[in-house]
Design a protein that fits this description.
single chain; 234 residues; alpha/beta; Rossmann fold; Arc Repressor Mutant, subunit A; 2 domains; 4-stranded antiparallel sheet; 22% strand; elongated; binds calcium ion
Length: 234
């Protein structure tokens, strides 16, 4: 069955080019020229398999559109690729803060975009589904509701921090290099340096408070999430 891709883009020419290029590759498409229309088409059953989202839309900002997709159960896990112009450097970062999976900078080649789409859809299909509730020592995670508790007190994580934590949890006891984390959590190579990983791990640790030492720093390599909560303290 072909994957359905929702395109939200107000530049008509680009929208048509993407629509044509994707359908030629065998994808089904839904096209929206405004944020409002994009949300309507995104919430339609069945939900799209992937969303291409322009940041600068005439009515609602792409960031707000992304946030609404993330807050709604049926589109919470749907991958979003942000389409952005170079001048929107800051928006780009914010895009990741609200939980976009990747971005491409305009002008981009349809070929490049197709590669990104394929990579994300492939990754989704091989990923093992996380259990809905994870308990690990002081930590409790509800992966469906995107909520985290430390010693039964809820801690607020950004979408990115949440993804970082669940990535760690799915690879307990295994060392993760900064590059691996960059690739798997941020899913991009350009413009984000390995220092970004350190910054976010630091913030995640702060938010985990008493559970912060579950994430160990492996000097010169990266990080490792403990295999067992009591490891090292025994
Ligand atoms: Ca636009």
């Amino acid at each position: 069955m072909s994957s359905t891709i929702l395109i939200i883009e107000d530049e008509k020419d680009l929208l048509n080019t993407l629509d044509y290029g994707l359908r030629r590759e065998g994808y089904a498409t839904r096209c929206a020229g405004t944020g409002k229309q994009g949300l309507d088409l995104g919430f339609q059953e069945p939900p799209p398999d992937l969303i291409l989202l322009d940041l600068m839309l005439p009515d609602i900002s792409g960031i707000e559109v992304c946030r609404q997709f993330r807050q709604t159960e049926r589109t919470r896990q749907t991958p979003v690729i942000i389409l952005t112009a170079k001048a929107e450097e800051i928006d780009r970062v914010v895009g990741f803060e609200v939980g976009a999976d990747d971005y491409v900078v305009k002008p981009f080649s349809t070929r490049e975009l197709l590669l990104r789409i394929r990579a994300i859809l492939r990754r989704r299909s091989v990923e093992e589904p996380m259990p809905e509730r994870i308990e690990f020592g002081r930590l409790k995670v509800d992966t469906a509701a995107h909520r985290v508790w430390v010693d039964n007190t809820e801690t607020q994580l950004t979408a990115l921090e949440f993804r970082l934590l669940t990535t760690f949890l799915s690879r307990k006891g295994r060392v993760q290099t900064r590059d691996t984390l960059l690739n798997d959590v941020w899913s991009i190579h350009a413009d984000v340096t390995t220092r970004t990983v350190d910054t976010h791990v630091k913030r995640l640790r702060e938010k985990l408070g008493a559970a912060e030492d579950y994430i160990e720093t492996i000097r010169g390599v990266g990080y490792r999430f403990r295999d067992r909560p009591d490891e090292g303290s025994a």
